[in-house]
Amino acid sequence: MDRPVLQVALDLVELKRAVEIAGEALEGGVDWLEVGTPLIKSEGMNAVREIKKAYGVKTLADMKTIDTGSVEVEMAAKSGADVIIILGLSDDSTIQEAIRAARKYGAEVMADLINVPDPVERAKELEELGVDYINVHVGIDQQMKGMDPLDVLSKVVEAVSIPVAAAGGLDAEKAASCVALGARIVIVGSNIVKSRNVTESARRVREAIDEAWKEGRKVEIRRKSLEEETREILLKVSTPNISDAMHRARAMRDIYPIVRGKKVVGKAVTVSTMDGDWAKTVEAIDVAGKGDVIVIKCSGDTAAVWGELATRSCINKGIEGVIIDGAVRDVDDIRELGYPVFAKREVPNAGEPKGFGEINVKIECGGIEVKPGDWIVADDNGVMVIPKERAYEIARRALEVKKHEERIRGEIEDKGRTLAEIVELYKWEKVQ
After folding, report:
1. How far is CA 256 from CA 122, 146, 234, 259, in A?
2. Most buried among 92, 117, 157, 389, using CB within 10 Å?
3. What's the pLDDT score for residue 429?
4. What is the pTM of this model?
């Protein structure tokens, strides 16, 4: 192996699209084509055959084998796979059987370290057993929680003499760092295959890893805090993306934007108050910090608990927006200020600041539970609540939804296809 190998993971479920995307990726400088596990489960060994026949380049079958090593390796090799990927978690006997079958049919074996408790020690054992490649892999669900292959890559590279691959949410920058840390193969999935311009995305990765290889330098990546990265990602995605990422979760009911075209992203400061009692809602402005979102639950909606003056106070403090399961007034002034307020009802009258209620308690706003510190994302589509315990994970999943839609949008606009055609809708309708 001279320059680092760029491998693309075709983790799709539609074979026709996978073949097309593979060709676009090769144009951008990809070397090896990996028939991903979702594609194999969807289309079987025919996916391996079609990819191999279409392009003839080194083809990998990500079987994720953990048992019956000989059988699964044999059928993948006979279908055209040059390298079969098995799980490093497999019993040694499974690994050995997989290697024997691979040698019989002229194929190689890559062992995937996903979920292995001690990846360095297991990598040494796998090398002794005779695998050809080690893959330091952080799975998609693990990536959603902030795990990164860079954390253990260099240790595995130092521990073995066979080529080491790296996989797990790699973009051009991270792929370059993997090469600088000693990876001989970088495996990129969604950042290429879900791109609207697959060829250009592959080319960016190709150029980045070649530069890191030639210069032998580590590309420094500033590790952001999870909160910082969560906010950054949520600013990129829409509430429909978030709903999809949360298995079609509901938005707040009957809460609408007073000012259209505004987006709110921030952590909740919650308020529980009585209809028309605006004391706690205004006091919450002093509690909230820059970047927070005030979320208010009222007992009714006949009198306003929010207006222009409270809005101006929020602007001064850098508070991102206000969500009100209740009434708001001064909407003409709020629209002129262009401040994002979402509310249930618009009325002219306010109540009195009696001081009933609480700040930073669990509330139910628009029919959705909100706890202090939960993330709020609101746009013209509605208001979504993301539990703080899963905020980073859901943000990452929403970004994957957005990438997937961008690729489909490109196929509709640039290639004149219909949505049903692209996603093979009729095939995937539930069997009755």
Report:
1. 54, 33, 20, 9
2. 157
3. 77
4. 0.80
Chain centre distance of CA 257: 27
| Confidence at 343, pLDDT banded by 50, 70, 90 | very high
Task: Annotate 278-298 with DSSP letters as a single string.
Answer: -HHHHHHHHH--TTEEEEEEE
Q: Specify whether the CB–CB gap between 325 and 344 falls below 8 A.
A: yes
pLDDT of residue 344: 97
Query: Which pair of tokens denotes residue 63?
Result: 């079987």
- Percent above pLDDT 70 for the chain: 95
Token look-up 């296809």 returns: 417
For residue 389, give the DSSP letter.
G
- Residue partners of 388: CB distance under 8 A and separation at least 6: 267, 371, 373, 374, 375
Rounded distance between C-alpha atoms, residue 241 and residue 400, angstroms: 9
294 is written with which tokens?
Answer: 């005030």
* Dist. CA 321–CA 306, nearest whole Å: 12
User: Which tens digits make up the pLDDT trace of 204-263?
Assistant: 999 999 999 987 655 555 567 889 999 999 999 999 999 999 999 999 999 999 999 999
Contact 25, 198 (CB under 8 A): yes
What is the token pair recorded at 183? 């990876």
| Residue 169: C-alpha distances to residues 157, 175, 353, 357 (Å) | 19, 9, 51, 45
Q: How far apart are CA 9 and CA 61, in angstroms?
A: 10
Total Cβ atoms within 10 A of residue 405: 16
Bridge partners, 186 (sequence order): 6, 166
Q: What is the DSSP string of 114-144?
A: TT-SSHHHHHHHHHHHT-SEEEEE--HHHHT
Burial of 346 (0-12, 13-18, 19+ CB in 10 A): middle
Site of tokens 């692209």 = 422
Confidence category of residue 147, pLDDT binned at 50, 70, 90: low
